[in-house]
Amino acid sequence: MKLYSTNHQVPEVNLKEAVFKGLPDDNGLYMPENIPTLPASFFENIDTLSFQDIAFEVCKALIGDEVPEKEIRSIVDDVLTFDAPVVKVENNIYVLELFHGPTLAFKDFGARFMARLMSYFLQKEKKDIMILVATSGDTGSAVAQGFLDKAGIKVTILYPSKKVSDLQEKQLTTLGKNITALEVLGTFDDCQRMVKQAFLDKEITSKINLSSANSINISRLIPQSFYYFYAYAQAKKLGKKVVFSVPSGNFGNICAGLIAKKMGLPIDMFVASTNANDIMPKYINTGVFEAKPSVATISNAMDVGNPSNYPRVIELYGKDINALRKDVVGKAYTDEETAAAVKSVYKATGYVMDPHGAVGYLGLKEYFEESGKDATGIFLATAHPAKFIEVVNDIIEKDVEIPAQLKELINKKQESIVIENDFEKLKSFLLTAL
Ligand SMILES: Cc1ncc(COP(=O)(O)O)c(C=O)c1O
Ligand SMILES: N[C@@H](CCOP(=O)(O)O)C(=O)O
Q1: What is the mean pLDDT of each run of 10 residues along the chain (434 residues)?
Q2: Could you tell me the pTM of the whole model?
Q3: Helix 51-63 and helix 218-235, axial crossing angle in degrees, nearest 10
Q4: Cα 107 to averaged position of ligand 1 atoms, centre (Å)
Q5: 132, 263, 337, 342: which one has the fewest Cβ atoms less than 10 Å from its Cβ?
Q6: How far, in Å, CA of 10 to CA of 176, rounded?
C-alpha cells in the first residue's frame, strides 16, 4: 500500500512507515494512493461469509502487497473475537452494535488491529515505541487495552479533565504498567493539538520513536471499514438499499465507511450525525469549514471542534463538495433532542441507546423523513450505554445493567498525572519519560 500526504509536501511512504510515523512531516494525513475495488462476486456472496472472512478479503485487497496473506488471516482472526450484530429497532431502522469488544466501544476494532499490525512489523526490528493518543473518552481505553503489556511499547494518553464519563475515566486510569494517563486541564481539541504538535517537534521525534493511535493513523481506519461490509452482509437479505448514519466527532468512523464505498460496497447514502459540535454538517451544508472550540455535550466522545479527518474526507471526493454531497448528508442535534430520542426509543421498544448512538438514530430518522426513502437504515451504536450510566439512567429512569468489564473497575484506584494545557508541559513529560 502506497500512501501520500494530503498536503503533498513529502514523499510517498509504504504502510509500515505510515503506521509508525502516524502523521506526515508536512502535517497532512496519509491517504492510500489507490483504493482497490473488490470484485462483483465478493458482493454477490458476501452474505454467506463470516465477519472474519469478509475482513480478510477487504484487508487483503488493501494491504496484501505488504503483509503476507497468512499474517493478515491471523491478525484478522485475533482482532475479531467479538461480534458486530445488526439488530432491528423499528420498521426500516436497525442498529449496528459496535460495543461488544473489551472496552465496549467501536474503537476496539481499530486499536486491536493497530496493535497486532505493529507487533507484526516489530517482529523483524527491535525498537522501543511511544504511542501518543488524545482521547475524548473511548479511543484512549481501547488503545490502552490493545497495547497493554506489549514489550517495548509505552502508551501515553491525553484526556480532557472532567470531560469524560466516570467509567471512561476509570478505563483510562486504572491499567498502570506501560500505560500513563495525562489529565489535561483543557478540552479534547487541546489534547489533539498537543499530540499533533509533538509529532512535528524535531527534538521529541529525534529522541523518541513516536507513533499515533488516533484515527490520524491509517491503520485505525482500515479495520473500521470491515464492519460496514459485515453490516451490509447482514442487511442484504432485506433486499433494500442501505443507508448508514454515523455518529461523528473526528470523522474517522465515517471516513472508513466512505473508503468501504469506494471499494465497491453499495451504500446508498451516509448520514454524518453530530451533536452541537456541528463543524462537518455545517461544512457539508454551506461549503465552509470553520473549526471552533468544542462545547460539552452528553455525547462527550463526539465533542470535537476541529475534526481531524476532514482532509481525508474531502480528498476522497477530489475536494469537490458537490460530489461529497451525493454520498453524505450532515445533521446535528442538541442534547435535549438526543435525550428525548433515548427516552422515546426505550419506551416504544425497550432498546437502550447510548447518547452517541442516539445522535445517529436521529440523523437516520430525519433523513428518511425528508427523503421519503424506503431503505434499510442502519445507525452505528458506537459505545455501550453503561459507559454513560450517569446520563442514561437519568433519562430512562432505570438502571442500565453494567457489563462485567466495567463493574470490575468501579473500585479500582485511579492514577493520572494532571498537566496544564501547554505543549511545553507535554514535551518535558515525554522527554523525561524516555
Ligand atoms: C462513542 C463514540 N461515538 C462516536 C465517536 C465519533 O467517532 P469519530 O471520531 O470517528 O467520528 C466517538 C469517538 O471517536 C466515540 O467514542
Ligand atoms: N472520540 C474519540 C476522539 C479521538 O478519536 P479518534 O478516532 O480520532 O482517535 C475518543 O473517544 O477518544
Answers
A1: 97 97 95 97 98 98 98 98 98 98 98 96 88 96 95 95 96 96 97 95 95 95 98 98 98 98 98 98 97 96 96 97 98 98 98 98 98 98 97 97 94 96 97 82
A2: 0.97
A3: 140
A4: 8
A5: 337
A6: 37
- Catalytic residue (choose from 60, 107, 261, 387): 107
Residue type, 64: G
Task: Determine contact, residues 416/168, Cβ cutoff 8 Å.
Answer: no
Whether 413 is catalytic: no
CA-derived radius of gyration, the chain? 20
Q: For cell 470490575, what's the residue?
A: 408
**Could you tell me if residue 183 is inside a domain?**
no
Check: CB of residue 321 under 8 Å from CB of residue 287. yes
Burial class (CB in 10 A: 0-12, 13-18, 19+), 262: middle
The CA distance from 189 to 192, in Å, is 5
CA 103–ligand 2 middle distance (angstroms)? 13
Asked, for residue 253, whether it belongs to a domain, the answer is yes
Is position 222 within any domain?
yes
For residue 251, give the ligand 1 atom closest to its CA: 11
Residue pair 245/380 in contact by the 8 Å Cβ criterion = yes
ipTM of the complex: 0.99
The domain containing residue 88 runs over which residues?
83-104+218-396
Helix (H) or strand (E) holding 197: helix 188-200
Using a 10 angstrom Cβ sphere, with 0-12 exposed, 13-18 middle and 19 or more buried, the burial of residue 324 is: buried
* Displacement of CA 416 from its chain's centroid (Å): 23
**For a substitution probing ligand 1, which of 106, 171, 259, 354 has the most ligand atoms within 8 Å of its CB?**
106
Cell, residue 298:
452528553
How far is ligand 1, taken at its centre, from the CA of residue 110, in Å? 12
Angle between helices 188-200 and 423-432 (to 10 degrees): 60
Domain tally, the chain: 1
- The reply to whether 52 falls in a domain is no
Backbone angles phi, psi at 417, to 5 degrees: -110, 125
Length of the chain: 434
CATH number of the CATH domain containing 339: 3.40.50.1100
pLDDT at 47: 98
